[in-house]
Amino acid sequence: MIPKYTIEYSMPLRRHAHVNHYHTDDPVAAKEFLEEALDRGLKLLAIRHEGVELAPKESDRLVNDAARMLAAKRICASLNLSADEERFRFGLMA
């Protein structure tokens, strides 16, 4: 059975890059993983949906959503805001 979402990423280990795959059937879990990957500075190699690599526009949308989630969390932590206050003032998690 092919997972709905597969994210191929690499972790820099000194001179070599180790390629890993993250598999999930949940689109929310895929965005949360992308958020964590962006936060940790992992290199994203490919995003696939049902075994087919997403078009650049679609994968950019997923990465953009993950980046907005990460930015919203950082703003909430830095300014001591609730999610509702962040949404009202900055509109990142709309």
Q: β content, as a range?
A: 25-35%
Spans of at least 5 consecutive residues whose pLDDT stays below 50 are: none
Q: Give the domain tally.
A: 1
Computed over alpha carbons, the radius of gyration is 15 Å
The total of beta strands comes to 4
Main β sheet profile: 4 strands, antiparallel
Mean pLDDT over the residues = 91
Strand order of the largest sheet: 2-1-3-4
Oligomeric state, counting identical vs distinct chains: single chain
Q: H/E element string?
A: EEHEEHH
Level of helix content? 40-55%
The helix tally amounts to 3
What attributes characterize this protein structure?
single chain, 94 residues, alpha+beta, 4-stranded antiparallel β-sheet, 4 strands, globular
Verbal overview:
The protein is an alpha+beta fold. The protein has one domain. It is built from three helices and four strands; from the N terminus they run ββαββαα. The protein has helices spanning 27-40, 56-79, 83-89; strands at 5-13, 16-24, 43-49, 52-53. It has a four-stranded antiparallel sheet, with helices on one face. β1 (5-13) and β2 form a beta hairpin. α1 crosses α2 and α2 packs across α3. The longest helix is centred in the C-terminal third of the chain and has 24 residues, at 56-79. The mean pLDDT is 91.
Compact overview of the structure:
This protein is 48% helix and 29% strand.
Q: Would you spell out the secondary-structure blueprint of this structure?
A:
Layout: E1 5-13, E2 16-24, H1 27-40, E3 43-49, E4 52-53, H2 56-79, H3 83-89
Antiparallel strand pairs: 1-2, 1-3, 3-4
Helix pairs in contact: 1-2, 2-3
